[in-house]
Amino acid sequence: MSNDFEDLQKQVADLTARVSRLEQAASQPRNLPVTPPDTVVAVRTAAKAQSKTLETRIGSQLFNRIGIIALLIGMAWFLKFAIDNQWIGPLSRVLIGLVSGVGIIGWSESFRRNNYRAFSYSMKALGTGILYLSLWAAYTVFHLVPGAVALLAMVLVTASNAILCWMQNSEVLAFYAAIGGFITPLLLSNGQNHALELFSYLLLLDLASIVLIALRPWSRLLLAAFVGTSFYAIAWYVSYYSDRQFALAAFFLVAFFLLFAIAPQLLRNLRLTTQARNLSVQDNVVLIALPLLNAALAFFEFYALLSEPGRTYARPWIALPLAAFYLVMLRISRRWHLNGGPMALPTVYMAISVIFFTAAIPLELHDHYIPIGWLLEGALLLWMARQQAQPELRFLASAVLALAFVGVNVVPLGSGQPVLLNARFATYLIAIATFAFAAWIAVHATRAWRSIAIAAGIAVTVLAMIAVCLEIHSYWMVQSSAKSADLYIYEQFTYSAWAMVFGAAMLGVGFWRKSAFLRWQALALLTLSIAKVFIVDTRQLSQGYRILSFLGLGILLLSVSFAYQRDWLALRGNKS
Question: Domain coordinates of the chain in residue numbers?
Fold first, then answer.
């Protein structure tokens, strides 16, 4: 009897399960896949989360900012209404502002303790702004307190924000403190020159910023301090600087330059020591941007200070001390790299040093000595890059050599007398030798140097072609015995003859050295010769010189064609 009852219970359970499945299938639309319950829940959860995120942003951020603006406008209108009706005097207005600011800052702490951190920081920004404006009004508008008292009070507000940001580990509050600190001199300005007080205050503020970023990973605060300091330095120079203040300006300029030059290295060392050699993205941005900005600003500021009469003689020598300084910083930074640090900062120091050395050449030299200086600098850098196997230095050397190539062809080198024995042709010979040296170094280096070898080889050909063409032009310009029309014909014919001779000579060297690179350059030069003979010479040369041009070109091209057809040097099997 017991077994029969158990069988009956199983049958009833099976029937109940079947009925449940049939009801579920009947509730689904036909010809549509059945969506698993888990997927439905996930989709609904994601949609709800997205809706909640948008709703949260609107409610907590947008309405928060609008609310703060509305409160400021409302309080401003209320104060204006009260002042217009003489309800409150100047002292009462300032006291109301101070009490309101302190009260809002204190009230914000209750929101922070309840995990409303963003709202709490917004409240602190509002309260801090009210405090600064109240102190500004007490000094500037109502003259209730002397400037020293207002300055001390604003410094206390800034210091309080700095302490709060350190205790609460808030980068937002750190920026509030920085903004308040740098806006203080602007609020207390009375239109008079207080250079010593201003720059002393800024120097203390910058030192405090460095101490703060040493304790917390807020390296962007260093950039903010640099921007604020630079703003005041430039504004003071434009508004108040005179030659009598040269010593004071130079002292603080050197102090700020050294501070912001050493700060990136200190930041890098601290991060690598305290964070297991891990640098954040913002750290790397600061390590690259700050040295470049500081070096550029220091150069232009020194140049401006030395532009006064009696000091202009020192301007050409500004770049060399800066270049030497960054070479020292490079050695210090590389010494830390030997212990495992990254190479971003040493590369920046290297680039700045090379830029200053390159800038020093046109500042201190003149005429053809400028490209010669760049050529020697580029060759030295390329040799150092080959010896030390540094890709960054190789790139910088290539940039300097490219600048030198442009300089040789752009800087006025003078006509020079006599032909071939002049400073211009000597400059081209030095350039040809330098680029030949660069090509030799690159050919005997790794495959990464291949592009430098090709560029340097082409530069040698182009420079040789231009150098001789300039001497041809100079030669015919001094031949005063002939008519001007005849001079032009002679000059054009000489250009064609030189292009053919040079192309043939290069092709011969290419055959001899079995160098496809030289042969291709020769073929390109011969192509240009063909174009000149057919386009220019046929229209501008006289009948006799036209015949000579075509005969010379035809004989040369047939000789080249015969050499290639006979394949005397087995070039078809040579891929060099």
Answer: 2-30, 38-83, 484-573
